[in-house]
Amino acid sequence: MDRRLFLAAAAAAAAATSAHAQEAAPAAQPAAPPQPAPKPPVRVAVETPLGRIVIALHTKEAPITTANFLRYVDQKRYDGATFFRASRAPGAPEYGLIQGGVQGDPKRVLPPIAHEPTTKTGLRHVSGAVSIARNAPGTATSDFFILIGDAPGLDANPEAAGDNQGFAAFGTVVEGMDVAQKILALPTPGKAINPVMKGQIIDPPLKIISARRVP
């Protein structure tokens, strides 16, 4: 007989022999089965001559942007691309962003993707965030940037005038922020096609040796 049923039967028999006995308590319910462990995040290692940067992707929050990034990774389109931009904060050059990608190379670039604003994903542009570069919403392709320092102004802001959609954050650096800081400190004498990037173009640009999924 099951041990729990035996104990319940014994308790009922004891109650029957005593006029003052209390009714037996119900048998305890079996414990719920343990929940499966959450899946680890998808991670990508970007190898450069200055070291490795490992990015954890927020695939659940930003499915479109992470899937796009992984297409470039899995098809090895980032291999041989570069980090070409280092934008340093005025008066605080240890903070800013670095940008890399294929820069519209027609042999490497894939079609643009739909925009995923931070108001939809819940992600934020904090230090270590990885986000996708764009012009107008819906024009993002390969180029991504990494923040060294918080930049809340890059989040979507529905109350702002004009283009208020911000940028689409999609990952977080989990290893190699020291490498990102080294890239940020590289000299930037290069000529900028976009006036916004004047004084921010790394020359020579830093090669991306490879970008691969890692455990």
UniProtKB/TrEMBL annotation:
<protein>
    <recommendedName>
        <fullName>peptidylprolyl isomerase</fullName>
        <ecNumber>5.2.1.8</ecNumber>
    </recommendedName>
</protein>
<keyword id="KW-0413">Isomerase</keyword>
<dbReference type="InterPro" id="IPR029000">
    <property type="entry name" value="Cyclophilin-like_dom_sf"/>
</dbReference>
<feature type="compositionally biased region" description="Pro residues">
    <location>
        <begin position="31"/>
        <end position="41"/>
    </location>
</feature>
<dbReference type="GO" id="GO:0003755">
    <property type="term" value="F:peptidyl-prolyl cis-trans isomerase activity"/>
</dbReference>
<keyword id="KW-0697">Rotamase</keyword>
<feature type="region of interest" description="Disordered">
    <location>
        <begin position="21"/>
        <end position="41"/>
    </location>
</feature>
<dbReference type="InterPro" id="IPR044665">
    <property type="entry name" value="E_coli_cyclophilin_A-like"/>
</dbReference>
<dbReference type="InterPro" id="IPR006311">
    <property type="entry name" value="TAT_signal"/>
</dbReference>
<feature type="signal peptide">
    <location>
        <begin position="1"/>
        <end position="21"/>
    </location>
</feature>
<keyword id="KW-0732">Signal</keyword>
<feature type="compositionally biased region" description="Low complexity">
    <location>
        <begin position="21"/>
        <end position="30"/>
    </location>
</feature>
<dbReference type="InterPro" id="IPR002130">
    <property type="entry name" value="Cyclophilin-type_PPIase_dom"/>
</dbReference>
<feature type="domain" description="PPIase cyclophilin-type">
    <location>
        <begin position="47"/>
        <end position="215"/>
    </location>
</feature>
<dbReference type="Pfam" id="PF00160">
    <property type="entry name" value="Pro_isomerase"/>
</dbReference>
